[in-house]
Amino acid sequence: MLEFLRGRDVLVAGWGVSGRSLIEPLRDIGANPVVTDAGAKALAEAAELGLEVAPCVQLESTAPSDPTGLSRFALVITSPGWRPDSPVLASAVTEGIPVWGDVEFAWWVDQARIYGPVRKWLVVTGTNGKTTTTQMTHSILRAAGISSVACGNIGLPILDALRRSPGPQVLAVELSSFQLHWAPSVRPEAGVVLNVAEDHLDWHGGLDAYAAAKARALVGRVGVVGLDDPVAASLARRAKAKRVIGFRIGVPADGELGVVDGKLLDRAFTKAAILAETGDISPPGPAGVADALAASALTRAIDVAPQFVREGLIEHKVGPHRAAFVRELAGVDFVDDSKATNPHAARSSILAHPHVVWLAGGQLKGAGVEDLVEEVADRLVAAVLIGADAPVIAAALARHAPEVPVVEVRAGDDALMRDDPSRSEKADTVMAEAVRVAAGLAGNGDTVLLAPAAASLDMFADYTHRGRSFAAAVHALEDGDIGRQP
């Protein structure tokens, strides 16, 4: 499948983490990588490494008859964030040049046994819970003594995982909707769609296209869907997997995994097997249990024994910024769920606590918050809002929770902070004030919860920066800050 690239030029579109991971594998199969990127700094960095570079503008403006343009390339491999209508990619399609994502290329590298025997891929996707489920899957595989690695959207590129020596037997692969869109050939041993809610609609053009991208995880030997999520559950009917099973936070039917009397139960791969106690699961609460059921389904699909599922789930501890407990102060808990970057994730986070001072805001990316606010209104003690779309959330609160006190903490024109060289300092200042205000609105038994329901890039470098900023502000509080009105 990759022989057509030997001795040919391949365009690497995007000099990010995934772009960098492509270089050595392309060279290993005898191809010549050429890098393009919209940023001059990125191109300069690639050039310093001795790589040939081609500015996007040059490729976009090249006449079809110019042999130095796109027509020289046998393949374009795009970073996942590049939209299909990006000029370079659209032009490549017009020229009849195939466009792959880095995950698609990694799949064919694996199938070609470039770096050893073909691995089993366990694919995790969904609007929320991907990283936790992938980490749980990896933890279960480790407990079973299976050589594995967590890779993909979780941070380690799949190609870097394949090149490890000794190589893993199984890949626990987190894939975003972007990555799945650009990876039509991937056929995992088992794949799960956890849930599907409004997110990245500006990229995909609508919820149907977004869900269709997620459904590409359900094309292998076993497909797994979250039955408590109506959109994910509906994908079971059109899944191309040889076998489709479901999981639910409730009593499972035959062919499902679920929960009975506080125990995770498998009725899909055996008549009935207890896998773990809900009290063993980190993070606690319905969202964590759902992720554990999904990880259990993936690993049971490759015959991991129930005792190893239990051991792996007990060993797993939630990562930073994912419903992570930060501190208790004067009877108030402070929880960092900065990874709740959309309303669906914020919903799960809020519903895990009875009394919440909600710290939210950022870039909603086209997602609506009306349903979220209406559902969680009775749990909200107060709301403190930051970021570009704070007014949108404030308006929803005014309509659906008018009795809830709302404070907006602004930093001038938040929508433009992403272009401000001093934004990091300003963002930290805003967060410190927001945490102080939230603490002042909280009382004994409340939880001050950072569950933004929005992306972070209007103000912060990323969601981890936002979470660190929150934690730092929390640790700076004193007892006297609790219950003190701003």
Helix fraction, binned, reads 25-40%
**How would you classify the helix and strand content by structural class?**
alpha/beta
Poorly predicted residue ranges: none
Report the end-to-end length measured between terminal Cα atoms. Answer: 64 Å
Largest sheet: 9 strands, mixed
* Strand content range: 15-25%
Whole-number average pLDDT? 91
Global geometry:
globular
Total helices: the number is: 18
Task: Calculate Rg over CA atoms.
Answer: 23 Å
Total beta-strand segments: 20
> Strand order of the main beta sheet, please?
7-8-6-9-10-11-12-13-14
What keyword list fits this structure?
486 residues; 9-stranded mixed sheet; 6-stranded mixed sheet; 35% helix
Describe the structure.
With 486 residues, the protein is an alpha/beta fold. It is 35% helix and 19% strand. It contains 18 helices and 20 strands. The strands form 3 sheets. It has a 9-stranded mixed sheet. It has a 6-stranded mixed sheet with strand order 15-16-20-17-18-19, with helices on both faces. Strand 1 (9-13), helix 1 and strand 2 form a beta-alpha-beta unit. Helix 6 (130-143) packs across helix 12 (286-300) and helix 6 packs across helix 13. The longest helix is centred in the C-terminal third of the chain and has 19 residues, at 423-441. It is globular, with a radius of gyration of 23 Å.
Summarize the entry for a quick read:
The protein is of the alpha/beta class and 486 residues long. It has 18 helices and 20 strands. The mean pLDDT is 91.
